[in-house]
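Study this one:
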Amino acid sequence: MIEEQSTPKISETIFAATEALVKFKYCPETLKKFRVVWNKLIQYAQTKDVQIYSMELSQNFLRDTYDLAAGTKLARKDYQKARAIQILTNVYLNKAINLRRKYKEFHIPESFKAQIDGFLQDEMGQSISKGTREAILYALCNFIAYLSQKEITQLSNVSPQDIHQYLQTLTDYSKRTIRNYLQTLRRFFAYLYTSGFSHQNLSLSIPSIRMGVTGSSLPSVYTEDEILRLLNAVDRANPIGKRDYAILLMATKLGLRRSDLRNLKLVSLKWETQRIELIQEKTGQVLNLPILEEIGLALIDYLKNGRPKVLSEYVFLKHVPVYEKLSPVGLNNIANKYFRQAGITLPKGKKHGLHALRHSLASHLLENQTPIVVISEILGHLNSHSTGVYLKIDLLQLRTCALEVPHAAD
């Protein structure tokens, strides 16, 4: 454990940081890069006749030595320098470092395993994907690695102050990552409380983070006229156009996610029953949707006259060797391409990938007074709570709920 020190000298802070990094088996090459920065910090402090580490010293050092200012976006070449100083700051503030390593390199102490295993089983009961499970485990291990440095071996001994100090170690993470970590910890501590592992509900001590500016949490949607213009912008006379048109139709008419379009297999097209049956990558649940007439015609046109004549289990392929399934970026570029060609105005901050087409479908269904439960089934949500976000954008229905404003007395 890092010793308590009210006014640590720079050399003592560096020693404590090195000790923590060695404990967590950071590779010698990484340590060497950090030491280069720390040695320059020592030299800089000597020119200022300073021996005690402080936030002001660290910020001035980064600015004067590397021309790095707090709060600015870092270039890749500067990340390691800022990270070296961030580690020292974490030691200075919290007597611990943040473990920015894959969870598999950290062994969970036995005293935490029962609670974590129980929580993961509880989360798995909600049919989360493998990627989501790994993200949850990574966030938990990051927090537990912090606790281990504070010699906290029981979750029942964690205090609100411990949580707040841990949050200080996340300052160099992106806002989205911090939000995801907080959401995981909030659910974890709520589980500990409801399951009897903790006598206090520490989930109430974890703050919320709002992303972006006011209103940015609303899904980006496009009108039915804009969707029609988008589809009409596709040149269906060539093979790539045939592919793109089928993809856009399935996104706008069925609301398929990018991951499910990318992984759609030929066996998922049940022509005898006019259905599409697939396992959703995000939820792991079966999704069963109709092959609408216009989608069926577009798929047949692509499969017969556009798709490369290669053996592949996937429906949508790249049209250059090697003829493999499309990449996530490639799929999004398809939507972006036709938004431009259709001349659809894209205000700053408005999303224009395939997911925006999924959002638009939900919005149009709401405008047509489709029950939220039905929309949830179409979109493949595990429950209607996920679909509820679209209620925010159903402006036409919201207006019918508005109260008449009484006229002021003359």
